[in-house]
């Protein structure tokens, strides 16, 4: 499911930009590869915006119009494409591409995950580089006997606030998580908007993702440290090239 407008507002307010260390890791990748960079499932520009601010030539692709609107506000004139990343058909070719923030886990269908990796490969020019940030939730979360309920809140510049109530159910034997989010925007006692969404995600052990990336036609596939830090559980990255 594509993220809606309240989700985009909430996530952008909660973390407008990635931490410096994460941005630095992708900036180093861009500098090493040179040329044009593709941020796959770029969201609200959490990584894309600071990289563009450093002069990196970068494009973004995401299926959520609301997320891309937030990204455009951050980077005037950004080259962004509204497409499902598993069915990409972009008019450019890239020296490197990355999937940041564990977004790869939002592609829960194995066939779609393979299509995503193959689609990225088709948009790279030799010796194009790929970096996929992966997350594995902590065992304590996976083994919860009941749904995990969390409530978070952010304040916006217009003095309103968005509260999101999340209820996440884990199915560890299938490596699936199902999160139901309810976003409510208020200004004082006034309710401005409400939004509901259900997000499904999955996760892979390092040896599994290595095989998936190799099967998609990449070489020199290896596990390395993640650019970002997981709030809970394990974070790692898969690097590869054409």
What percentage of residues falls in helices of 4 or more residues?
A: 25-40%
Biggest β-sheet: count, sense, barrel?
A: 7 strands, mixed
Instruction: Determine Rg (CA atoms, Å).
Output: 18 Å
| Highest CATH level, the class of the largest domain | Alpha Beta
Strand order, main sheet: write it out. Answer: 3-2-1-4-5-11-10
Q: What is the CA-CA span between the terminal residues?
A: 30 Å
Structural class: alpha/beta
Proportion in β-strands: 35-45%
Task: Count the beta strands.
Answer: 11
Per CATH, the superfamily of the largest domain is Vaccinia Virus protein VP39
Q: What characteristic shape results from the CA principal axes?
A: globular
Number of separate domains? 2
């Amino acid at each position: 499911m594509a993220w809606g407008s309240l989700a985009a507002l909430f996530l952008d307010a909660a973390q407008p930009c990635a931490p410096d260390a994460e941005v630095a890791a992708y900036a180093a990748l861009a500098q090493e590869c040179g040329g044009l960079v593709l941020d796959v499932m770029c969201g609200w520009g959490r990584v894309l915006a600071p990289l563009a601010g450093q002069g990196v030539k970068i494009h973004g692709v995401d299926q959520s119009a609301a997320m891309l609107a937030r990204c455009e506000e951050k980077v005037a004139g950004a080259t962004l494409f509204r497409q499902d990343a598993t069915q990409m058909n972009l008019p450019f070719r890239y020296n490197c591409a990355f999937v940041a923030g564990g977004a790869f886990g939002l592609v829960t269908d194995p066939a779609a995950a393979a299509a995503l990796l193959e689609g990225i490969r088709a948009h790279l020019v030799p010796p194009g580089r790929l970096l996929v940030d992966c997350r594995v939730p902590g065992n304590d979360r996976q083994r919860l006997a009941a749904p995990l309920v969390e409530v978070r809140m952010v304040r916006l510049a217009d003095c309103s606030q968005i509260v999101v109530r999340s209820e996440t159910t884990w199915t560890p034997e299938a490596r699936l998580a199902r999160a139901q989010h309810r976003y409510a925007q208020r200004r004082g006692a006034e309710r401005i908007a409400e939004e509901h969404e259900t997000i499904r995600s999955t996760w892979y052990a390092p040896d599994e993702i290595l095989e998936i990336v190799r099967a998609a036609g990449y070489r020199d596939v290896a596990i390395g440290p993640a650019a970002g830090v997981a709030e809970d559980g394990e974070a790692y990255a898969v690097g590869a090239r054409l």
